[in-house]
Structure formats: structure tokens, C-alpha cells
Specification:
With 337 residues, the chain is of the alpha/beta class. It has 2 domains: 2-153 and 288-336, Alpha-Beta Complex (Quinone Oxidoreductase, Chain A, domain 1), CATH 3.90.180.10; 158-284, 3-Layer(aba) Sandwich (Rossmann fold). It is built from 9 helices and 17 strands. Strands 3, 4, 5, 8, 9, 16 and 17 form a 7-stranded mixed β-sheet that branches. A 6-stranded parallel β-sheet has the order 12-11-10-13-14-15, with helices on both faces. Strand 16 (309-313), helix 9 and strand 17 (332-336) form a beta-alpha-beta unit. Helix 3 packs across helix 4 (184-193). The longest helix is centred in the C-terminal third of the chain and has 12 residues, at 290-301.
Length: 337
Amino acid sequence: MKAVLLHEPKPIEQNPLDVVDLPTPNVEKGQLLLKITACGVCRSNLHMIEGDWVEFGIPAKSPIIPGHEIVGRVARLANDVADFREGDRVGVQALWSSCGKCEFCLTGRENICQSRHMTGEDVDGGYAEYIVANADYVYHVPDSLKDSEAAPLFCPGITAYGAVKKAQLSPGKKVAVFGIGGVGHMVVQFARLYGADVVAVSRNIQHLKLAEELGAGQVVDSSKGASPQWLKEIGPVDSSIVFAPSSTVAQLAVKATKAGGITVIGVWAGMGELSLVEERKVVNSLIGSRYDMKQVLSLASAGKIRPVYEEFKLERASEVLDMLKKGDIPARAVLVP
């Protein structure tokens, strides 16, 4: 099979990825072999490839195939797999497996299992023609969704859904979304489903235009003027959700949130000093559970949310990641083998 392989993390400009031929992997107990038809390109892929997360043990092995938002068809399955058949169209998200025994797994929070394995970070991912998946963490894709349309649901979709749930939104509440890209443009849509008024904050004009198209009632260009100036435009909000990969932005999001409000952080960020007297809550959010993933697929199938995407050939992975780094991808890029 053809695959995009990361040998050693380094800046994307130094060409750390190679398109290579590898043996098609074999399935073991409880596994499926999927012929990949679409794989989204996530900013977290870029962070891993460039070595930003080496101190956290990511990637866990080298070389590795990146990619964790995957749609494909079942090409082969182990004898003990009962819920799928060859030819089924399915999807794989970032959560490749969890232990199934800890307090988190037993309470429907397997996404924060401390023994979890992540697709494309701990095990080989979706920048390839085939992938081995754990059958307990594979999802049937609704017929109403195209392959490349469905792929982003398995990261931006589930990640946005999980973050918006934690923001405790309802009709009449106001939420500021910091960072309108692959995940952020889905956050805007889920927040609107809750009936909230959305303020989209970004320094990228393309992203702000997209946020308006998706229902944001107000957009704020954070590249104009000093932060105190544009923070006043936002006004105190009930909740803020951060998917801009910046500690400075995360700290500003807290300041934009009213006393007693909630800031949801979906990126690695240093929060600095937090004020005691406003009783604000700062909550982390990591993807979502398997139940959440099924809810996202159901909402997309009903036409209530829609990923915005562009297709690119698998061999253009390095080019696409460079475009992502430069802010030239309005929402989500999807690689097609």
C-alpha cells in the first residue's frame, strides 16, 4: 500500500514526510482492515509532525503514519468480529482504543482513559491506503454522507461537540469562539444548535467569513489593534471556547468571559494567573466519547451540521500541511488515496 510516513519530527518546510510503499497490514483478534477513502488533515497532525509534542511522548513510535479522521470500507475482518461485514462503510476517530476497565471507561468517558491509544499518534493512522482499526472503536457511516464529508466528523465534529457540551449553552446565552478553523467552524454550528448567540474571533479573514456563513452573529478580527480594544467588542460572554493554539489567546478568552462563566480549552495552553474573585471555570476538553461520536453522526445525517472541506490527493500531504500552517485552509482539508 501507499502511505505517508513520518520518520523523524521536524518543521514541515524540511520535508519530514515521505510517500512510501509498505506491506498492507494484517488483522489480529478484534480488528478490521479498512481500505481508506478519505482522511482529514488536523492541526494536531502538524504539531506531531513538527515535534511540538515530543516532550509528551507524541509520536509514541517512529516511523509512524499520521492521520486520525478516517472513512473507508471494510476490506478484511478478524473471525471474532460480529458487528461488521466486508464492504461496510465505516469511520475511525482519534480514539483507537481504551482499556475498558478503568473508572473513565466504566462511566462513558473512555476518551480520557489513561491507557488509551490514539490513532496516528500511538498506532499507524490514515495517511495511507489501508489502516487496521479496533472494531470496538469503529462506526458505521450514514448513507446520506459522502466519504470526504464524513471524515472531518471523526475529529472536528466530535471535538467540537464535546467542547460545546461542556460550555453549558442555551437560548439567549452568548459564546465567543476563539479560532475558526477545522474544529472552530464546527463549534459555531453546534453552538447555534443550542440556540446560543455566537461571536467568532480570528485573525484570519477567510475564517471569519466562513463563521458568518455558518451563523455567527458577530465576528471580531483579532489582528486589528491591541487585545484590550477587540476584547471590548466581544463584551462579557457567558462562555468562551478556545481552539486557537495559543496560550495568549486562551488567557484572553478567560478575560472575555463574565464572572461565573465557563472557558473551555481544546488546545495545549498555559493559562497563567487566574483571578479568584470572578469564580470563572476553566475546563479542558479532549475529543469525546463513543456515545458522543454516534450523536455527531446522527446530527450530520439529519443535515443539522455540515463540515466544510476541500479534497486533495494523498501524495500532496506535505503541501496541504504547509498550507494549513500558513492559514490557507478555510476549514478542513481531506486527503483522498
